[in-house]
Structure formats: C-alpha cells, structure tokens
Amino acid sequence: MTMTGLISNRNFASFFASGNVYRSGKDISVQRGGISISGVSVAKDPFPRWQHKMYLPLEERVSKQMQTSNNKGEHRSLVSQQSSQCNFKLKASGRSRCSFLCSAPYGTNNVGHGEVYRLGLSKRKHAQTEVGKTNKFRVCYKSEEYDISETKMDPLQSTEGTGEAILLEGRASPWWQQFPKRWVIVLLCFTAFLLCNMDRVNMSIAILPMSQEFNWNSATVGLIQSSFFWGYLLTQIIGGIWADKLGGKLVLGFGVVWWSIATVLTPIAAKLGLPCLLIMRAFMGIGEGVAMPAMNNILSKWIPVSERSRSLALVYSGMYLGSVTGLAFSPILIQKFGWPSVFYSFGSLGSIWFVLWLSKAYSSPKEDPDLGAEEKKLILGGNVSKEPVSVIPWKLILSKAPVWALIISHFCHNWGTFILLTWMPTYYNQVLKFNLTESGLFCVLPWLTMAIFANIGGWIADTLVSKGLSITSVRKIMQSIGFLGPAFFLTQLSHVKTPAMAVLCMACSQGSDAFSQSGLYSNHQDIGPRYAGVLLGLSNTAGVLAGVFGTAATGYILQRGSWDDVFKVAVALYIIGTLVWNIFSTGEKILD
C-alpha cells in the first residue's frame, strides 16, 4: 500500500507512537485523531509474545496532517490492503529522515504499552525491515521533494511544546540537556572569574615568605602588588573595543590563556630578579584586563534584562569565591610544597577551562547552532540589538553625565576594594598577629560573605525591577548600600578590641560592598548595551587606577602612618562616590 504525505523531521514519531491498535481478524487499524491506517493483512499464526522495540528519534514527529480522500468521499485512507506484505512509500521533504513504526506485543490493544525500537532509514536509500517469519513489514522510504499540488495539507498541532522535557524510553532527558544555554555561558564566565582571582590573590599570601627570602621592605611589596595593575590598566579599553568588535568568546579565551601562562612563569621571574617579577606581574595584568569587558559584552548579548542583575552577581561572585579558594589553599600549598607551588598549580587550571570554553561558548545566541528556538526567542525578544559595533562614538559617550558617574564611582569603589584584596593578609599578620595559615583562613570569611551577598543582592534587584520599581531607583539603592556599608564598618575597625571583631567588621564591610554588583556593575548594560564592553573598559580603567594608586599609597602610608589612616582615605572616597552616584547616575538607555 502507498502512503503519501508530508512528514516532518520532528513529529513523525509521536504520530505513530501514541496511536491505538484495533485488531479484527486479518485487519489492523491504527488511529490517531482523525487519521486512520487500515487494511494491513496479518498472517494467521501469531508471533511469539515478545515486545517489538523500535527507538524513535524525537526530532521525527508529525507536524502536518496527512490527508487523502477517495472519489467517493469516504473516510481518508492512507494504506491500501495487499497481501501478507505491505509497502509504505513516503513522499517526504528532501530533508526528512524517517525512523518510525511502533508495535506492541502481539495481541495487545495498545501500541503505547509496547517498547520502541529504532529503524534508522537512510535518506537516500530504501530501508527494509523484516519482523517475524511469516508476517513481514517492508518499509520503503524514498527521499524526494514533496509536491504540494498533489495533496491538501492541514496543520496538525503537536501536543508537545518545543521546550518541554523530552521523553526517551519513558524517561525525561538528562537535566544537563534541559539546562538553559544562556546559564551555561554564565557559569563558564563564573569559572573564568574564579580562576582570575585565584591567580591574583595568591601573591597576597606568597608575598610574605617571598619578602623574607628576597629581603623586600613594605615599599617594595607595595610596588610588586601594584605592578599587576600596570598591565591591567593597559587592556581595559582595548579589551572592550576588541570584545564589542570581535566578540566576547575570542577575547575572554585569550585573556584566560595569557594570564595562566604568566602565573606559571611568576616563580621563575622572581628568582631572576625584581625587574623580571614586575614585568611578569604586569603581563598577568594584561590578560586579566580584558576579562571584565569581554564578559560584559557576552552577557549583554546572552542575558535578558529581567535576569541581568542575578547573572552578573553570579559571575562576579566567582571573583569572590576565587579569592576564597586562593586564600584558603595558598597557605596549605606554601607550607607543604613551598611558595612556587601556588603559582604552578593555580596557573595550570586555565588550560582545562579553555577546552570547555572552546566547545561550549559562543559570542552571541545567533552563533549557537544548538540553541533551542524558545530560548533564542526569549533572549532576542527581551534584549537589545545584537548588531556588531563598527565605530565607537567616543564623543557621544564622553558627553554623557551618567557615563562620568560610572567612571568616578568605579574609582571610589575600587580604591577600598583593592586595598582589602591586596593588603588584608598583611593587616591580619601585622596588626592582629595571626600567623600565615590563620591570615589566609581569616581572609576567606570576608570574600565568602561577598559571594553570598552578591547573589542575594542580584535576586533582590531583579525582584524589585519585576515589581515595577524603576531600574534607576534599583541601581541607586543597591550602589548606596555598596558604598555606605563598607564606609561604616571600616570606621569601626579602629574601635574594636579583639581580632574576632576585626574579622567580623571586615566581613560585614565586604558583604555590603557586594551589593555594588547590582548597582554600578550592572549599569553599563543599562545605559549603553551595545557598547557594554567599552563602557566597562572606561569605568574599570578608573577602577584600575584606583588599584594602582591605592595599593602603592597604602605601602607609603604604612611607612609613615597607621592602618587607621589607610581606612580613613577609603571611607572618604566611599562617601564621595555615594554623592556622585545618586546625583548623576541613571538606569535608562542613553546610548543606542
């Protein structure tokens, strides 16, 4: 018998798999909805009672109802009765591959109870399958273009949605196949930033035994710590331009490989001399300098506005957890294997990440061939234009007050943040009299607090936006917490009497600082999503300058003053940043 119709790649299987079988004498009728297949001749002697199985690829489901009417206006027949064999000739789309037929145990009434085998039918050849000894089903598949003039087609809506959990052999597909691809990108960026801060903060711990071995004073230590920012400063704006023009995947991948190599070579440079060490730390800064602009670019294309704060908070919490990991494991590695082991072990992890990045990441949803239709619609429908940037409108960008609010606020924020990042172990060691291991372990608590509160702040910010509060108000509220919270707790450090209270103040200071991820760090994508990489490069350049001057100035202040003086400067800048941010910032798009 001959069956003519259009067979979709996606839904052919669901048509046969969910039908019912009615058997009467020699005739079998398979029905689903208004479609019937009748007239199949079956031999008298039955098959053994075993279940025929056929694995049904899910992409081959029926999407068009196959209709053929005879001249008498009777019911539509797709199959004509022949002898004990039946031939199915399908005229299908040239793209179709057909794997179908399902059967149940002989004598049962429900095909759905039978298990399913897969008949892989070639696109270009006839496939024949014989089942049993006396009764045979021959399936002939012929690939040819469908002639729409032959048959009238009505759409058959699939009961399954395109985004549902797909069943295979009665079970849902694995969770990692259903996991949203945009959050795979977020997790990969999270991991990159984890490695970023692991490789950065290990020097904060290793500098203590290194300074003893090479006889470095506080000024030299401050110079070494700040040398990282020399290179970090160079690639902020350049990294943003590269990311906006070439795509975030290429730029971020380059950065991770570059800084990982520089990390591995750091012990060799230190033994060659101080100038070589300063150059190598600057090289490491070059690699890490492109990370934030590239990440901001790629997330601006992958993440809809409704998920912006929480996604950025998760990525930036990777930095904090990187600090936690680096500060926790560095003392252990140093005590057991010596300080060079920290750089060798941490730097080698970048190669593993790079392999995953190459295979899983894409610069934009449009470049990902495996991205589902529903998720692509969600991303592109709820996001900004994804056209690549060819020319950067510098004059327009620098003429906007909210851009300068970002730049100034980023400087004020990073002054205090980088001081705590680079000098906290030394503070614990010199002021609180903790040993090397205790310094590393107690430094973990503030960064762990940041990782937790960054994500809490992200969810709060997205919830406020979804409740109808303006993006401008949300950004101002979150950043005000990120400025005034650290300012308050740093002022308390001079009044505490015990090391435990000092550590608690540090933890509270860093925890409130983490709300900045839903404030100024999310604002680049708000005001100019197409130029998110360049905007972050601009503001983070100011932030890097704060790191360079603040880290070096801290060493200078400590030679002539005290830690109270260090904290007073940071508090003053936090207050200035609060004023500038609340007066000039906005959450509305000002650059298109």
From TrEMBL:
Where found, per UniProt?
Membrane; Plastid, Chloroplast
Q: How does it sit in the membrane?
A: Multi-pass membrane protein
Membrane spanning stretches: 183-203, 223-243, 250-272, 278-299, 311-333, 339-358, 403-424, 444-465, 531-558, 565-584
Keywords of this entry: Chloroplast, Membrane, Plastid, Transit peptide, Transmembrane, Transmembrane helix
Give start and end of each Major facilitator superfamily (MFS) profile domain: 185-589
Q: What Gene Ontology molecular-function terms does this entry list?
A: phosphate transmembrane transporter activity
GO cellular component annotations, sorted alphabetically?
A: chloroplast; plastid membrane
The question of whether Calcium is a record keyword is answered with: no
Q: Which family does it belong to?
A: Belongs to the major facilitator superfamily. Sodium/anion cotransporter (TC 2.A.1.14) family.
Name of the protein in question? Major facilitator superfamily (MFS) profile domain-containing protein
